């Protein structure tokens, strides 16, 4: 008797159809740029450019470059923090450039759904509760990303996504995308069985060849292979952030991180305990001593830097090997 196997379904968000139900997490500052987003889109997933912290001209350049790198029309979106002072303007620039979708996290905006409706651009909020998912559906969201405590960066909950996804699935009639701790084909299948229509993956793509992380930062990813290598730090945004233990993250935890000498007023609200934009940028550029390294806890299971094509091949092969 022939064994049935799991074939990954398509992911439909509005009129968009991704052949593989994988969204690449939008990792700022400048980890997710055109090269990574395009590589993911070319494999049939949804690639995101991390818009937070980018000047408008740079964002336009990255969107146009991603389009050039996806000649067969892959799906390219942006990820942007609602907490960013220029959130509205960044979304407007992306919509002007014909972006395929907007993913928004680190806060919640009711206005963004109106912008999406006016332009016909799918708006996809990142939420951590069924209540906020229902509100998002009422306001006009095209899909919901459900992020749990396993994820890297700013977190909205201390509950795992695998507990929240079924609650959101029961609450909304929209595509649901599970995020946090998704690394392998088995993880993808687990999320789908919990009721998700797709997944968002950050850490695995951060540790890819096409990731815009510096070589030094990628070495930090590979060295983080124990649970104690990961810490929760308080972000000036007002949310906890999951990060890899570094000299800088340890200084944050004892409230000894240097306060910014100059403020670019990049956030709507900021505690000014340290400059998170500059701290993330320093890590991206290779200064891992005084830089902040956001990462999901599943990074401890990543032991190699792989091309995006190989990451997709591994995931689809692993998923196909799992019997129903």
From TrEMBL:
InterPro entries assigned: Aldolase_TIM (IPR013785), NMO (IPR004136)
Keyword ATP-binding among record annotations: no
UniProt keyword annotation of Flavoprotein present: yes
CDD domains to which the protein is assigned, alphabetical: NPD_like
Alphabetic keyword roster: Dioxygenase, Flavoprotein, FMN, Oxidoreductase
Name the record gives this protein: Probable nitronate monooxygenase
Role: Nitronate monooxygenase that uses molecular oxygen to catalyze the oxidative denitrification of alkyl nitronates. Acts on propionate 3-nitronate (P3N), the presumed physiological substrate. Probably functions in the detoxification of P3N, a metabolic poison produced by plants and fungi as a defense mechanism.
Record SUPFAM superfamilies: Inosine monophosphate dehydrogenase (IMPDH) (SSF51412)
GO terms for MF: dioxygenase activity; nitronate monooxygenase activity
Annotated Gene3D superfamilies: Aldolase class I
Organism name: Megasphaera hutchinsoni
């Amino acid at each position: 008797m022939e064994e049935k196997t799991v074939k990954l379904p398509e992911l439909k968000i509005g009129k968009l159809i991704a052949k593989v139900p994988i969204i690449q997490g939008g990792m700022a500052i400048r980890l997710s740029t055109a090269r990574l987003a395009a590589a993911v889109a070319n494999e049939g997933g949804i690639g995101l450019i991390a818009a937070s912290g980018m000047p408008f001209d740079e964002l336009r350049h990255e969107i146009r470059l991603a389009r050039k790198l996806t000649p067969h029309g892959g799906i390219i979106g942006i990820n942007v923090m609602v907490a960013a002072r220029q959130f509205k303007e960044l979304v407007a620039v992306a919509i002007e450039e014909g972006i395929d979708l907007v993913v928004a996290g680190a806060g919640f905006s009711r206005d963004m759904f109106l912008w999406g409706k006016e332009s016909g651009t799918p708006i996809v909020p990142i939420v951590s509760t069924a209540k906020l998912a229902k509100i998002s559906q009422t306001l006009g969201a095209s899909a919901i990303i459900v992020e749990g405590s396993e994820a890297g960066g700013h977190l909205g909950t201390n509950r795992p996504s695998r507990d929240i996804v079924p609650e959101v699935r029961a609450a909304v009639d929209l595509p649901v995308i599970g995020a946090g701790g998704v690394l392998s084909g088995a993880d993808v299948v687990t999320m789908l069985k919990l009721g998700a229509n797709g997944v968002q993956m950050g850490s695995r793509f951060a540790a890819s060849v096409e990731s815009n992380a510096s070589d030094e930062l990628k070495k930090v990813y590979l060295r983080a292979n124990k649970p104690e290598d990961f810490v929760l730090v308080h972000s000036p945004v007002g949310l906890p952030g999951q990060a890899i233990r570094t000299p800088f993250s340890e200084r944050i935890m004892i409230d000894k991180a240097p306060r910014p000498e100059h403020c670019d007023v990049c956030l709507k609200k900021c505690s000014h305990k340290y400059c998170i934009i500059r701290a993330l940028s320093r890590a991206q550029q290779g200064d891992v001593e005084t830089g902040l390294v956001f990462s999901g806890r599943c990074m401890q299971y990543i032991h190699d830097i792989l091309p995006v094509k190989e990451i997709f091949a591994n995931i689809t092969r692993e998923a196909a090997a799992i019997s129903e």
